[in-house]
From TrEMBL:
<dbReference type="Pfam" id="PF13346">
    <property type="entry name" value="ABC2_membrane_5"/>
</dbReference>
<feature type="transmembrane region" description="Helical">
    <location>
        <begin position="144"/>
        <end position="165"/>
    </location>
</feature>
<keyword id="KW-0812">Transmembrane</keyword>
<keyword id="KW-1133">Transmembrane helix</keyword>
<feature type="transmembrane region" description="Helical">
    <location>
        <begin position="113"/>
        <end position="132"/>
    </location>
</feature>
<keyword id="KW-0472">Membrane</keyword>
<feature type="transmembrane region" description="Helical">
    <location>
        <begin position="185"/>
        <end position="204"/>
    </location>
</feature>
<protein>
    <submittedName>
        <fullName>ABC-2 transporter permease</fullName>
    </submittedName>
</protein>
<dbReference type="InterPro" id="IPR025699">
    <property type="entry name" value="ABC2_memb-like"/>
</dbReference>
Length: 213
């Protein structure tokens, strides 16, 4: 796995994608729709796969001592690396936000434990639709991104709306009692992300094996 990921990071990952991965720091911005950060985490693999298409990465990979399943696994690992790094990178800034006592975000949900859980769920659904569509052909990246953008946009709207509903005000709180209620959402997000990533890999590997390069 280390070798597969190393190849993707050195030869496939577009520099702009790396920049997007560092945008988790935007949780420190006082008034900003934080769900947009998740969109950046999805733009990173999209731009990378566009770059891979233009540089004939799949053809090059086919000449290496790698199976098609390993090629799919490398792309799944790269996508997960972008997204998980982005969320992990944002944690110190979310903590700093609390230390600086930045006012609650008037736009939508703050960077709470629930927000991270919802983010993982959004990533999981996006990856399932995006990668499984992409590996039907190995080159229709734009179509795959448009298909995956629909559930992504709906999910982002739901996350931002949740912060404005009085009955769900605890989702937008950093009080210890409310954080305790948010932990199950975070755990559910982690479980769903891992489960759907494994499912995504299986679907993509099966589809890509039938693709004639």
């Amino acid at each position: 796995m280390k070798t597969l990921l190393y190849k993707e990071l050195r030869l496939t990952a577009h520099p702009t994608s790396v920049v997007f991965a560092f945008l988790g720091c935007l949780v420190l911005v006082p008034a900003y729709p934080y769900s947009v950060i998740f969109l950046f985490g999805c733009l990173a693999p999209y731009i990378t796969l566009v770059n891979a298409r233009e540089t004939n990465d799949l053809w090059y990979t086919a000449t290496l001592p790698m199976t098609k399943r390993e090629s799919v696994l490398s792309k799944c690992l790269l996508t997960a690396t972008f997204q998980l790094f982005q969320l992990a990178f944002s944690v110190p800034f979310a903590c700093l936000r609390a230390v600086l006592a930045v006012p609650n975000n008037p736009v939508g949900l703050d960077a709470t434990a629930a927000w991270y859980g919802f983010g993982l769920m959004l990533y999981a659904v996006f990856d399932l639709v995006f990668l499984s569509s992409y590996f039907k052909s190995g080159y229709r990246v734009g179509r795959a991104f448009l298909l995956a953008s629909v559930p992504m946009a709906l999910g982002m709207a739901a996350v931002e709306t949740a912060g404005h509903l009085p009955a769900l005000a605890w989702l937008d709180s950093v009080r210890p009692a409310d954080l305790g209620r948010q932990v199950p959402i975070l755990l559910a997000g982690l479980f769903l992300y891992a489960a759907l990533l494994a499912l995504t890999y299986r679907i993509c590997a099966r589809r890509y094996e039938t693709v004639d390069l």
